């Protein structure tokens, strides 16, 4: 089976075929950096990190672009409230974004372009549309004529008459049609601005992504991703302005993730019910947060709750302990042959095949996680034998879990390190204390190790330790 992706444009699953064999050009809309990201913002970050990771797992070279909107109405309003400049405000939250997504084990984009660094490209883009009479200027603002793009509405599957009821902003009387959208905004007194052929001002929201996607990825990209809420008007407008400029398809595959809900209500900054990732990081591990995000199909809504997070913590921990036990046993295993070795390896291979089958079916991460637990269950049964374990079988199981985790990122990856001699010495002393039936001293040592973040575990292969 080959990779199939649900294309929001055609509303069906399609086999994935990039423009250039072996290479993928992927653009995902990034945050407007006027505040810390909340868990709703984090969902597309994690979802498209997994999309990218699996493409790379399949041998593709992925050029991944995710922008920062570092100037717009929200930033200007927030900067005025705080008495600081827009660039200073934006820089602080860009750095916070990097910290948060790195903590979530998300790979950094190939390019993270900023609107303020691409003003020349944006102005050039708009100028062509104005010259072709696809856009028009009115009192220093520039608008896109949606009537000039016959396919406007093809992504959200609405016609122009229907779309006028979906416009989120108040109708501007200066516009020729209510559906027309702004490409350039004239600067108001005291606002940040750039000089342009239409006067001082700044870009509209939609034009930024079209200009930056074209600059860094070309006229046509393979995958364009983002949250479901961006499908209209943002992505609809991107298509209209980009395809009007180039005469080519803007993106071959459109992918949109579902909403995060809080108590079954959409989570957003505007509704004031968002939970900041920065706060969640204090309570939950990044792997547990990723597990929660991937526990539902990316196109489905996902409800955030303490119960859901508790389950994610427990499930991620089960996988972590299972993999650690495999590695611990592997260190002590012998090069021997089991009678049922071939059968065990075949079961692991079946689970790996299931993993790929589910990932290739439009990134079905819940079922892909199930494949990981199939391997874990086989591993736990095998480890329960305690003796005569095969290095080959253990290695095959560990490698399978590590491969799947390299895509999903739901098991902590601990760097290999030498055992701390003091910890080893205390463990030996505790073992001797237990032999001597000196339970008080044994408990004292365990408490001492726990205070240092060391957790002792009794396994069939002996006592092992790990850090919290």
UniProtKB/TrEMBL annotation:
Instruction: Report the cofactors.
Output: Zn(2+)
* Source taxonomy: Bacteria, Bacillati, Bacillota, Bacilli, Bacillales
- Name the residue ranges of motif: 'HIGH' region: 31-41
Where is this chain's protein located in or outside the cell? Cytoplasm
* Amino-acid positions noted as binding Zn(2+) in the UniProt annotation, renumbered to this chain: 29, 209, 234, 238
Question: What gene is this protein translated from?
Answer: cysS
Task: Give the cofactor note.
Answer: Binds 1 zinc ion per subunit.
Q: Which PANTHER family does this one have? A: CYSTEINE--TRNA LIGASE, CYTOPLASMIC, CYSTEINYL-TRNA SYNTHETASE
- Annotated source species: Marinicrinis lubricantis
What family, per the record? Belongs to the class-I aminoacyl-tRNA synthetase family.
Annotated motif 'KMSKS' region, positions:
266-270
Sites binding ATP sit at 269
Its EC number is 6.1.1.16
- One Pfam short name: CysS_C
Which residue range or ranges hold the Cysteinyl-tRNA synthetase class Ia DALR domain?
Answer: 354-419
Q: How does it assemble?
A: Monomer.
MF terms from GO for this chain are: cysteine-tRNA ligase activity
CDD domains noted in UniProt? CysRS_core (cd00672)
Tell me, in one coarse class, where this protein mainly resides: cytoplasm
Q: Which HAMAP family match?
A: Cys_tRNA_synth
Task: Provide the reaction this enzyme catalyses.
Answer: tRNA(Cys) + L-cysteine + ATP = L-cysteinyl-tRNA(Cys) + AMP + diphosphate
Aminoacyl-tRNA synthetase listed as a keyword: yes
Q: Which UniProt keywords apply?
A: Aminoacyl-tRNA synthetase, ATP-binding, Cytoplasm, Ligase, Metal-binding, Nucleotide-binding, Protein biosynthesis, Zinc
**NCBIfam families reported for this sequence:** cysS (TIGR00435)
What name does the UniProt record give this protein? Cysteine--tRNA ligase
InterPro entries given in the database record: Cys-tRNA-ligase, Cys-tRNA-synt_Ia_DALR, Cys-tRNA/MSH_ligase, CysS_C, Rossmann-like_a/b/a_fold, tRNA-synt_1_cat_dom, tRNAsynth_Ia_anticodon-bd
């Amino acid at each position: 089976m080959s990779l199939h992706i649900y294309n929001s444009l055609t509303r069906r699953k399609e086999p994935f075929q990039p423009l250039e064999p072996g290479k993928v050009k992927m653009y995902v809309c990034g945050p407007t950096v006027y505040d810390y990201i909340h868990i709703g913002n984090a969902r597309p970050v994690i979802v498209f990190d997994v999309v990218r990771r699996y493409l790379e797992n399949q041998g593709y070279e992925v050029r991944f672009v995710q922008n920062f909107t570092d100037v717009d109405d929200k930033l200007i309003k927030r900067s005025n409230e705080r008495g600081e400049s827009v660039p200073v405000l934006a820089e602080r939250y860009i750095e916070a974004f990097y910290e948060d997504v790195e903590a979530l084990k998300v790979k950094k984009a190939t390019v993270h372009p900023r609107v303020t660094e691409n003003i020349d490209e944006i102005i050039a883009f708009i100028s062509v549309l104005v010259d072709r009479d696809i856009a028009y200027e009115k009192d220093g603002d520039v608008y896109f004529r949606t009537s000039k793009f016959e396919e406007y509405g093809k992504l959200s599957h609405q016609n122009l008459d229907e779309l006028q009821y979906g416009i989120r902003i108040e109708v501007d009387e200066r516009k020729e049609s209510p559906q027309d959208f702004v490409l350039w905004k004239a600067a108001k007194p005291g606002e940040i601005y750039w000089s342009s052929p239409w006067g001082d001002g700044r870009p509209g929201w939609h034009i930024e992504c079209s200009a930056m996607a074209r600059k860094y990825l070309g006229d046509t990209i393979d995958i364009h991703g983002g949250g479901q809420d961006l499908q209209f008007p943002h992505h609809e407008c991107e298509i209209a302005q980009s395809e009007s400029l180039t005469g080519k398809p803007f993106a071959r595959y459109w992918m949109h993730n579902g909403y995060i809900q809080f108590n079954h209500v959409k989570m957003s900054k505007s509704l004031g019910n968002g939970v900041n990732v920065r706060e969640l990081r204090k309570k939950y591990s990044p792997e547990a947060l990723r597990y929660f995000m991937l526990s539902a199909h990316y196109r489905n809504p996902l409800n955030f709750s303490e119960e859901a997070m508790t389950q994610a913590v427990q499930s991620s921990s089960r996988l972590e302990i299972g993999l650690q036990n495999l590695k611990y046993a592997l260190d002590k295993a012998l090069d021997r042959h089991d009678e049922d070795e071939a059968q065990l390896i075949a079961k692991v291979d079946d689970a790996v095949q299931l993993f790929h089958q589910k990932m290739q079916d439009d990134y079905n991460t819940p079922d892909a996680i199930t494949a990981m637990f199939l391997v874990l269950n086989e591993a736990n049964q095998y480890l329960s034998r305690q003796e005569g374990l095969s290095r080959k079988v253990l290695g095959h199981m560990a490698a399978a879990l590590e491969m799947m985790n390299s895509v999903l990122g739901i098991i902590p990856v601990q760097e290999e390190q030498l055992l701390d001699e003091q910890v080893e010495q205390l463990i030996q002393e505790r073992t001797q204390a237990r032999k001597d039936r000196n339970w008080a001293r044994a408990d004292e040592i365990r408490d001492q190790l726990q205070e240092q973040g060391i957790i002792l575990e009794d396994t069939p292969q002996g006592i092992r330790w790990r850090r919290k």
